[in-house]
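Changelog entry: the Beta-glucosidase record was regenerated in this release. Current contents:
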Amino acid sequence: MTRYQFPEGFLWGAAASGPQTEGISQQAAPFYLG
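Regenerated structure tokens:
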């Protein structure tokens, strides 16, 4: 399930300061949090 091509650092970093990556964070976050 955690086979996303984005490391946690990139995921959270993008979600924290990257409106253009909102779509990615919204799709990837559930996999990491869930």
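The first helix runs from residue 8 to 16.
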